[in-house]
Amino acid sequence: MIRSVVRGFGAALPKRVMTNREMEEVVDTTDEWIVQRTGIHQRYIAGEGETTVTLGTAAAKAALENAGLTADDIDLVLVATSTPDNTFPATAVDIQNRLGMTHGYAFDMQAVCTGFVYAMATADLHIRGGLAKRALVIGAETFSRILDWNDRTTCVLFGDGAGALVLEAQEGEGTIADRGILTSRLRSDGSHKEKLFVDGGPSSTGTVGHLRMEGREVFKHAVGMITDVIEGAFEATGTTADDLDWLVPHQANRRIIDGSAKKLGIPSEKVVVTVDLHGNTSAASIPLALSVACADGRIKKGDLVMLEAMGGGFTWGALLVRW
Q1: The one catalytic residue among 20, 66, 280, 294
Q2: Domains: count for the chain
């Protein structure tokens, strides 16, 4: 059978690092409060000339270089983002153009923080369905542009950045020993919309709007939803937490990450955590974390890796991949 195998990875971050101490000068908060409740020490903030498209393009180029490929080798560009440069065309089409591609196809995926998991699952379907041989899957965000910088409960949480993976069609035996994406589990429940949303849009207000969140409500649902889809991925593949080499979660909050891992029986030394460095970068957080763990040698060829995320909507999902 055809498997979607990870061929390369890449990341891009804005130039500016904003520490918690700097955040103290913006809103009524403290470094101690932020670290205790979220695990975040700093985040990257996009400056002039840095956008979702520029960051996504840089991450894409890095992933192509890591894979030893060029844009000519890619059939599909799929971008997960909630902060596009334009209402349309898709961010993916802009990045496709900047990569010099005039072939193939490109589109965006909007599932907020779960966007990268949704995008990986979608690219896998396109590859296994024969529509594409190689796909560039990108998570790119500039959440700093939709934050209310007077709201101390949200502006301390989010940052900007981009990460990318190159997926390639390869023959597999149809077992869990295969390299590539083994299974995915995707969910959503729109009844939770008011708990995490942006209060604007082209059709409703004609404005971009600002992010609004009921933090306690999100936290209350997060661990249960995340563990549900991870357990579903284990059941679908006949694997368990003991078989896992790495859990790479969405980097929203250290307490959510720790709570989910504990409930699943996954030891902390198997969990990739970068929320302290990047903050919550929404759809970019998983590929950024993957890039860090691959670059430092933690994630190696043959490792069994679980990706998971939860985002506004609510959306949530998990994807199991043999690296």
Answers
A1: 280
A2: 2
The strands making up 315-322's β-sheet, listed across from edge to edge, are 180-188, 315-322, 304-311, 246-249
Tell me the β-bridge partners of 26. none
Do 103 and 243 have their domain in common? no
Do 99 and 232 belong to one domain? no
- Asked whether residue 273 falls in the same domain as residue 159, the answer is no
Q: In what order do the strands lie in the sheet with 160-171?
A: 2-12, 160-171, 134-142, 76-80, 105-109
Annotated catalytic residue: which of 250, 253, 278, 294? 250
Reported confidence tier of residue 302, pLDDT bands at 50, 70, 90: very high
Provide the pLDDT for residue 2: 98
* 41 a catalytic residue: no
Residue range of the domain that includes 229: 180-322
Say whether 150 is catalytic.
no
Among candidate residues 20, 66, 113, 210, the one labeled active-site is 113
To the query of whether residue 280 is one of the catalytic residues in this protein, the response is: yes
Q: What does the DSSP assignment read for 75-93?
A: SEEEEE-SS-SSSSS-HHH
- Report pLDDT for 271: 98
Can you give the pTM of this predicted structure? 0.98
Closest CA to 51 of 158, 161, 197: 161
